[in-house]
Each structure stands twice: as C-alpha cells, then as structure tokens.
Amino acid sequence: MKKVLIDNCVPLNNGDAALIFGLYKQLKAKKCEVEFSCLKQKEVKKIYPNFVWYNSHIGTIFYRICFKKNLFVFLWKIFIFFKLVVFNNEYKRNEIIISAPGGYIHSYYGIEARMYILYLCKKWLHKQVGIYSQSIGKLNKHDQRVLYKYGKHLNFIFVRDETSYRRIKSYGNFNNIYRTKDAAFLLLDERLKLVKTTKKKVALSVRKWSNEGRSMQVYYQLLNKIVKYLIKNEYEITFLSTCQGLSFYTDDSKVAKDFLREYSYEEGTNIKVDQEYYDLDSLQKKLRTFDFVIGTRLHMCLLSLLNGVPSFNISYEEKGIESFKYLGIEDFVVDFNSKSEHVNEKLDAFLGMELEEKEELLRKVNVISKEQKLIFYDLYSSNFERIAQ
Fold it and tell me: Largest Cα–Cα distance of the chain, in whole Å?
C-alpha cells in the first residue's frame, strides 16, 4: 500500500475541497493510504474529522515574517531544511508527495516556499514528488527562476489547460510537464444525469478580486446587468458560493451584501443571500436544487456541472475561460471586467438551452471525467515517476 501526502490543501474553500477530494477518491481506489497537509488545521479537522490532517508549514507567523518583502527567506529555508530533513515528520513518513490540485502557481500567491518544500522532499528525502492539476500564471522574473530551479527536479508537473502548458514551457527547459484538466472531474463516480427542474431558480456566486489590475467597480456594473436581466425574466436569484459562512475564512456572502447595497437591491422573494456554511457534500446537494448556476468562482461552475446543473462563468482568471473552452461552451463565459453589451445575448443562449443541448453538455463532462481518470491511472501505473508519451 502506497502512502501519499497531499500537501498544502485549503479544504475550507469548497472549490479546493472538490480538487483534493477528487484526487483522494482515485488514490483510495488504488488502495493508497492518504494524508493531508493543510492551512487552518484545527478548523479543518472539525469539518472533515474522518481524515488525517497536518498543519502546513506555509502560513505560520515565522513564515510570514521571513517572507514579508522577502527579507529573511534564507532563514526560513534553513529552518525548514532541518525540520524536514533531520527530524521525523509527515513528509518522511509518506512515500509520495503530491502538491494539492489548485491554482496557486501565481506570483501574487507566492510560490517559493511551496516549491522549496517539494524540492526538499525530492532531493533530500528521495520521495516521489509532483504537482497535480495546476494553472500556471504570468510569473514575475524571480518566480519564473524559482519555478524552474525547483520544478525541474520533480517527477511530474501536471497543468490543467493549454495556456498553462505553453507558458510553463516558456519558463524553462522542463522535461516533466504533462497536460491534464481540472482535478474536480475526478469526483464523478457514475454517469451524470441532468437535474430537471422548472422553477426558474438561479444560484449566483460572486467574489472579491483585485489582482492583475481587476476593478471591482466594473465587476459590479456587470453583475448589475446580470441581476437586472434575471429579475426582468422572472428568475429567483440566490447568492451562493463555495466560500461562505465561516468567520475565520473568506466569505463571499459579504461581497453579495455589499453589491446589493451598492445598487439598492432589497432581499425578498426574487433575491436572497445564502450565508450558511456547507461542506462539499452538502453544497453539491444544495446545487441540485437550482435550474442554472452563474458563477464567478470556477469551481462553483464545475461543481454545478458535475451535479447535472448547467453553469455560466464570470471569468476572473484564465482558468475559467480555458475550462469552458475544452467543455465546448466558451460562449457561456463573460470576462470579470467585461463592459460588453452582449451579456444579455449570452444569457439568452445559456438560459434558453434546449434539453438536447444540456444533455450534450453533460455528455462532455462525462467524457472529460473518464479522460482524467485514465491520465491518473497512467500516472499511478508509472509509480508516480513519469507518463509514457
């Protein structure tokens, strides 16, 4: 039985939970023993008590001090080297280290500490080490060098879209880069069936985002167009997100409330803000009560599709448009800062889909899910060392 550590998880975000538990399902199917390293370990253990959680080395006070303006990074590296290489720890006790699926390879998240830990696991602890299903952002020059310096030693780096694949290839002469799609597709157990409701209920997820020069004011203007359209066409709107309901974590319901105040909307029959916390299973159950989902967070959209509910994406990062491209529904995406007058036309096409169109969309979701499982099985069969091309 292989022992696997999925490193640096953020399961309080149900988007990230979908990614790590999708990967977990496939590992367990292969009889692996799986443990997790996560942020906010105490809170995570209360929500998901049936898993083994270790506290991440990323996010401690010492880490934040050392990486503030990158003044004392070398001190943290010395400390973490001795902690991981000399003393007993979860990295030593596991044979395979997989960086949690997600989208953190962006300069605004900081990548050096995460990459350094993976490098130590490979070069000093001699583990099988890789990154699974990541997006690769427009890194600054320093982070490009960091990614290549440490990443070239790993057994595998799987990127989840074509743009990420081309970009990472431009950062260095890697020979361990492979293409996959989003790890959330690994969640699907059986053939997907369309949720058939006729109540005209739409879940709308929002979020705060200001990286890469994005404007919340322009975003709110877009949201206003969407909400006006839905109300005019007699849809019931519920603001619902993968991140909400926890006082110690990002809460998108606060963004929803702020938007409603900004545009003088009142909660009532047609507009509601759901402020409850849902774990991954309960959120999926909740999604199945809607006819459609319009999501700013990508995994609000993907979880909806995985539960038989068509979704429309407000894309704040490239991963949104890239995912909808390979699903063949790029017409159901609008940019986070779009000022286009054509959003109503896109919503007409989305909300007016015929049954056959919805069935075809879900058929594609089934196909992609099967593809991702085959890619994972190839990775497993190569002992997490390489993929035969």
Answer: 64
Look up residue 370 and give its two tokens: 């099967």
- Alpha-carbon torsion 210, 215, 217, 219, what sign? negative
Percentage of the chain exceeding pLDDT 90 = 87
**307-312 average pLDDT score:** 96
Residue 382 CA to residue 209 CA, distance in Å, equals: 39
Reference 94, options 21, 30, 33, 38; nearest CA is 33
Q: What is the pLDDT of residues 226-265, one digit of tens each?
A: 999 999 999 999 999 999 999 999 999 999 999 999 999 9
Can you give the chain as a three-state secondary structure string? Answer: CCEEEEEEECCCCHHHHHHHHHHHHHHHHCCCEEEEEECCHHHHHHHCCCCCEEECCCCCHHHHHHHHHHCCHHHHHHHHHHHHHCCCCHHHHCCEEEECCEEEECCCCCCHHHHHHHHHHHHCCCCEEEEEEEEECCCCHHHHHHHHHHHCCCCEEEECCHHHHHHHHHCCCCCCEEECCCHHHHHCCCCCCCCCCCCCEEEEECCCCCHHHCCHHHHHHHHHHHHHHHHHCCCEEEECCCCCCCCCCCCHHHHHHHHHHHCCCCCCCCEEECCCCCCHHHHHHHHCCCCEEEECCHHHHHHHHHCCCCEEEEECCHHHHHHHHHCCCHHHEEECCCCCCCHHHHHHHHHCCCHHHHHHHHHHHHHHHHHHHHHHHHHHHCCCCCCCC
Q: Which two tokens stand for residue 194?
A: 């369309």
Distances (CA, A) of 229 to 202, 261, 313: 12, 18, 16
Return d(Cα 15, Cα 92) in angstroms, integer.
28
Q: For residue 387, is pLDDT > 50?
A: no
Structure tokens at 125: 């602890």
Burial class (CB in 10 A: 0-12, 13-18, 19+), 141: exposed
- Whole-prediction pTM value? 0.94
